[in-house]
Amino acid sequence: MSIFSLLKGSKSKKDKSLDLSWMGVDMHSHLITGIDDGVSSMSDAVEMVVRLKDFGLKKIITTPHIMSEYYKNTPEIILNGLDRLKSNLEEQHIDIELEAAAEYYLDEIFMEKVTAAEKLLTISGQYVLVETGFLNKPQMLLESLFSLELNGYTPIFAHPERYLYLHNDDTLLRQLLERNILFQCNLLSFTGYYGKTVKKFAEKLVDAQQVMLVGTDAHNHKYLNALEGLSTEKYFQKLQKLPLLNSTL
Fold first, then answer.
1. pLDDT one-digit tens code per residue, 14-54
2. Which end of the chain has the lower number of beta carbons within 10 A, N or C?
3. Are 182 and 160 in contact (CB under 8 A)?
4. DSSP for 61-80, written as a single string
5. What are the residue ranges spanned by the domains of the chain?
6. What is the pTM of this model?
7. Do 85 and 35 meet the contact criterion of CB atoms below 8 Å apart?
């Protein structure tokens, strides 16, 4: 047996200690090679899918970035990448449901797509995953989300616990929730992966029953390695008791 096989075997055995079967669906990850800051090779992409399956997940909706200045992806680029990944999984007889959407950065270019009724990559036909910068609130944040709703979409606010501008702005937090914007937290936030402040705010959102979706936001093996410690965190059980929408996707 090769060293690579031994390492894979050890990794698989370790993965089985984390049970995410209660999630059913991971709806936030970056598993399409070469189009954003996610997985860098097809072999890594396949291995990560296997690891996620070993966690007990039944379906993966991978969500590459669409960001006008950095990742100028289109639905065609993303769906072609999805087809390549699915073909490699089929060749290796890895059976798991796999779809693709996108993580859209809220900027003027994105809003032009929305107002022009340009086709967006959605989750389950209606949900659009959106993100912002981490430090400063976008000037048109509420207006942008409202525009999505007017065009028939339901916005999912990706990892709100990571937006420092939201941590001490109870008014903005209330405004987002009053608009029924769906909050999606990263599981890694509850491990302290992004820092203590982010972890504390993620826990606050859980305690307030304001988290409707969770995701791995996995970009590479480092993310999944860190995720293995989630089951030892005190909020792991609390997450499982939330009325999450993951399993409906």
1. 445 899 999 999 999 999 999 999 999 999 999 999 999 99
2. N
3. no
4. EE--EEBTTTB---HHHHHH
5. 17-242
6. 0.92
7. no
